[in-house]
Every structure is written in C-alpha cells, then in structure tokens.
Amino acid sequence: MTCPACHGELAPWRVVPASDPALPGSFALERCRVCGSAVTLGPDPGAEAYAVGAYGGEPRLARLAAPILAAFDRRRLRLLARALDRPDTDLRGVRLLDAGAGRGRFVAGALAAGAQASGFEPAARGVQ
After folding, report:
1. Structure-derived torsion over alpha carbons of residues 43, 121, 37, 79, reported in degrees to the nearest 10
2. Which of 5, 41, 50, 101 has CB atoms 3.0–4.6 Å from 55's, for a disulfide?
3. For the CA atoms of 19, 20, 22, 28, what is the dihedral angle to 10 degrees?
4. How far is residue 17's CA from residue 112's CA, in Å, rounded to a whole number?
5. How far apart are CA 21 and CA 60, in angstroms?
C-alpha cells in the first residue's frame, strides 16, 4: 500500500485507541515517508459505525465548540495551501473532495477560500 496523497512509501507509525465508544479497540497508523500523511490500517468499520456514538444524535455543545471548530478548519486550509505552495488560504482553482464530510463545514470553508470543493457523507444521520 502506498500513500493516497503522494504515492510515497508508508512506514509503521503508531497504534491508537478508538476515539469513539462505538468503535472499540485500537487502530494501527502508518505514516508516509515523503509527505507525512497518516493512513489508518484495517477494514473500514462500515457506514453503520457513523450512525452511533459521536456521529449519532444532536451535536453536544455545538455553540461553544463552533469557534474551536472554525479555527481547526482554518488550520487545515492553511496546511493544504502550504502543501500546494500557495499563500495562506488561497485555494483558487484547487479541486477538493472531502470524503466523510459530515455536516459540510470543511467543504464550506474550502469554497470560501476559492476551491472547487464538494463532499460526501456515507452516514444518513450525518447528512440529516
């Protein structure tokens, strides 16, 4: 298996516990020796995993978390721009597909930064 971002060689990196009670156990991660992207190993948990746990139900503390999530998305946009040798968050002309887009927050930020962005969410609950 090669890096999905740059096709570089992957190397074992770390094992992390599942962050959601709906996904018990731990996951092995490999990291690209070229670009540093991390890849989760193992089988896909399936779309049903996104209907429970952190992905199910109403968002908790959504108003309080909004500024933190916005800062997180801005950071991701800056990292993406830097990886593409672009200034700050200028993503004009960049095509972006967010797999597992949730409520579409990152896609909206990428659109605002000029990207041709779209996303999909496999969980029906996330789309609602």
Report:
1. -170
2. 50
3. -20
4. 34
5. 16
Per-residue model confidence (pLDDT) at position 101: 87
Alpha-carbon gap, residue 99 to 92, rounded angstroms: 20
Residues 6+ apart with CB under 8 A from 22: 49, 52, 53, 54, 55, 56
Q: At what angle do helices 62-83 and 105-112 cross, to 10 degrees?
A: 50
* Residue pair 88/76 in contact by the 8 Å Cβ criterion: no
Name the least confident of 59-63, 83-87, 112-116: 59-63
Q: Which pTM value belongs to this model?
A: 0.55
DSSP3 helix / strand / coil % (the chain, rounded to 5) = 35, 25, 45
Sign, Cα dihedral of 122, 125, 126, 128 = positive
